[in-house]
Structures are given as C-alpha cells and as structure tokens.
Amino acid sequence: MNRPDGMRLSIARIMWMTLRGFKFDPLAFFMKVDELYGPFSYNELGPVRMWLINDPELVREISVEKAAHFHKSRLIRESIKPFIGNGLLLSEGDFWKRQRKLAQPAFHTRRIESYAQTMVDFTEQALAGWRDGDVRYIDREMMQITLQIVCKTLFDANVSGEAARVGTLLTEVLEASNERLNAALRVPEWLPTPRRQRQKAVLRELDALIGRFIEDRRRSGEDKGDLLSMLLEARDDNGAGMSDQQLRDEVMTLFIAGHETTAMALSWALYLLAQNPAALEKLQQEVDMVLAGRAPTLADLPHLPYGEMVIKEAMRLYPPAPGFSREAVEPTEIGGYTLQPGEMLTVSLWVMHRSARYFAQPEQFLPERFSKEREAEIPRYAYLPFGAGPRVCIGNLFALMEARLMLAAIAQRYEWQLVPAQQIVPQQLITIRPQYGIQMKLTQRQPVLA
Ligand code: HEM
C-alpha cells in the first residue's frame, strides 16, 4: 500500500536553513505536519525518513500491543548513547528486562513514599535562600532542587555544594545530545571539533563524580536500601555482579532522566499559573487550608487535589518529554501499513496533547479537565506524559509526588510574576524547556489562615 505521505524537507533546504542560521524547530514542524496531513503520515527530513503518529489508538498499538516489535530509534540511540550508555532508557531485550526488574523496587509506592520528606526538605532549603523581591530564573532553581533530590534519594549522595556545577555539566550533556539529535548534517565522529573536545571534558568530570558515588559505597559496604545498593548487590544467574561500566550507565541514565523532566513540569506549571491568577489563587487557597502554614507531607497529598490537577494540565500543554521515538525490528502492521525493519516512527506528545481532536479548548490552561469527575473524558492514550506500555517511565510516581510536594511548598510561601518583556520560547531538546529561561519576580507571602 502507498504511504500516507507527509512533508518532504530536502537536504538542500535544510542546508540552506543551516547556512542562513535558521534552527530547525521540531515543535513547529510536527504541528504543521499534523495540521496538513493528519495524525498518521510518512515524512522525509533530509536523509531521515520517519512516520509521525499522533493517533491514540495507533499509539496504543505501538507502545503496548506491539511493543516487542520496536526498539528505541537509532536517532535517539545515536544522540544520547555516547553520554548515557546502555542504561535503562536505551537497553533492549532480555538485558533491559533484567535491569528494569532490578531497578523497579526502588520505585515502588512504599519506597517512594519514604522519599517525600527529602523532597520537601530540599525545597524548603532552597526557599530559605530566596528573598522577598528576588528576580530568579525559575527553571534553573527547579533544576537545582530536583537534582539534589535525585542524588539523595537514589544514591544517598549529597551534592548541595556541587549542585550548580553538576547541573551545568548535565545541561551540557543534554545540549550535546540534542545537537546530535537535530543535526541533519552530521560532523563525522573522529573530527575533534572544539565542542566535541569540551563534551569529552564534561563527560570525564561527570564520570569522576559518579565513580566517586560508586567507589564510596563499595568501600563502605553498607546497604542503604537505595537504588545504588540494589544495583550493587544485583547478581546474574552465574552470581556475577554488574560491571562498573554498567553501573555508571544506569546511574547516569537516572541522573539525566530523573531531574530535568520534573524541573520542567514545575517550571511550566509556575509559568502557566503566573498567567492565570484565578488558578493560582485557587491553588493557594487549597494549600493554606490544608497546610495552615506548615511544610507539606506525604499525608497531605490526598487533600491537595487541585495541585495535582495543575501539574497534570501543565504536562499536557508542556510535556517535559516531548515524545518518543521507535524503530521497527520486524515487519509490523500499523494502521493498515507495514513498517519494515529499520523504519522509524515518532509520537509527538506536544502535538497530541494540543490537538482539538482529543481536547476541548486545547490551547487553554484548564486544570479542571483533570478533576476526578472529568479526567475519564480524556480519550485513552491521548494524554501520555510518561509514555505507556512496558517502556513507561519508571519514575512516574516519583515525579508526580515530587512535583506536587514542591508546588505546595512554593505556593505556600511565595507569589511569582513573570518579568515583563522577556521572550519565553519552548524549545524541544531532550526535554521541552524554555530556550531563554523563565525569569520570575518573587514576593514572599503569608498563608491566609481560615
Ligand atoms: C515529570 C517528570 C517525568 C516525565 C514527564 C518523564 C517522561 C518519560 C517518558 C515519556 C518515558 C518513556 C520514553 C520512551 O518510551 O521512549 C520515560 C522513561 C524513563 N524515565 Fe521518565 N519522566 C519523568 C521523570 C522521571 C524520573 C523522576 C525518573 C527517575 C528518577 C525517570 C526515569 C526514567 C527511566 C529510567 C526511563 C526508561 C524506562 C525504561 O525504558 O524502562 N523519569 N520517562
């Protein structure tokens, strides 16, 4: 059967765009393709050919029913593997299954609940450093907090003193990955460009840091019951432990996957609330009533439903992970077409979450659509910030709990306003982040006690 042709963007056109200094904007591109050709199309992007699939039923087929017919796409592998190696995000087959089973207990509800206090403590510590009238890049603030949380909860490592440096290093890694992802015209790997040299230095520094975590724990021999201990104790059928290289890859993967995503969910939530004062007021009323001025705890979460609705709606409009990408490993029928081995597909959450096909008033920030009564109206598989099926985000409960606790702690103590005349531009990197940051003016507030 003929392919449902979408857009052709020739190499010549991409070269011209590159020479003219235009950057390829995947968010706008995917939106345009969907508008012109619908939720299922076959596209040529210079030398890259891929299916773009934003139809919930087809997304279910790919990620659940026929998940075993697909691997992560080579586009993703080639762009991030040099940095995170063969950790959970990129491994495949039986090896992935084994590693996932090993890591899973660290993300079970009971275990995650024990992280709540740490999440609140690091947030409160950051808030204690803010002053009335401060102007801050809120996205950077969120990244520092979530990085400290992931280090402490999963690796029992305190990086408070180094958080800014580690944050910078990880940002460099993410940017380098993205550069590789978006580079239609690749520079051969062996060319030692200054940027490549810098990336190598960044990786060396990060490797040294992770090596220190592992070494310290090996030396102490202590079982702290955290993810690092679980990984260190894991044995295969022959009784062999994980190699240092594999440990390093798993730790780096969790570093990368586990902090910027949640930080982005929060940054966009704060941004949307700044533009929707009625929603912010409702959130603050809820927080004041439930917390009455004290720090939030795990037990408060069931009583803070509006906060959860805000986070979910923020992740609809600004999905921290912009989508997911796969490659067929065997001939697979999807929507009446057969994808041949090696053919790639991308699901754009940005497009699907903003489609009028599945959401009324899709551009509006309406947390109420995630109320208990209304959430079931959302078509299944149309809202997937954490993906679906066997490769669903292992950190989804962790992230939701973290974002809800952090939002409650922040909303209780501060008001925030966007600094005027700044450009807020969502940019698709490995996450969707504000290209120039989000500057907020912070004003201290006192909880209004009933
Ligand atoms: C709001 C926050 C987060 C979002 C939106 C998010 C989103 C996602 C998505 C969409 C996937 C699936 C990718 C695919 O199918 O190709 C994924 C996978 C993954 N995420 Fe998250 N994530 C978040 C937070 C976290 C956290 C906090 C952690 C760990 C601490 C984490 C660790 C992982 C890992 C290890 C995978 C790979 C799982 C596997 O393939 O077995 N994520 N995430």
Characterization of the model:
This protein has one domain: Cytochrome p450 (Orthogonal Bundle). With 450 residues, the chain is an alpha+beta fold. The chain has 16 helices and 13 strands. It has helices spanning 11-19, 26-37, 56-65, 74-84, 93-103, 109-113, 116-129, 138-155, 163-182, 194-220, 227-233, 244-275, 277-291, 305-317, 349-353, 396-413, and strands at 5-9, 40-45, 48-53, 70-72, 135-137, 323-328, 332-334, 337-339, 344-348, 414-418, 426-428, 432-434, 439-444. The mean pLDDT is 89. It binds protoporphyrin IX containing FE. Protoporphyrin IX containing FE is lined by residues 72, 88-89, 100, 150, 253-254, 257-258, 261-262, 265, 320-321, 324, 385-387, 391, 393-395, 398-399.
Q: What is this structure, in a nutshell?
A:
With 450 residues, this protein is of the alpha+beta class.
Strand percentage lies at 5-15%
Q: What value does the average pLDDT take? A: 89
Q: Helical content, roughly?
A: 40-55%
Oligomer: single chain
In the CATH hierarchy, the architecture is Orthogonal Bundle
Query: Which molecules other than protein and nucleic acid are bound?
Result: protoporphyrin IX containing FE
Morphology call: globular
What class, by secondary structure content?
alpha+beta
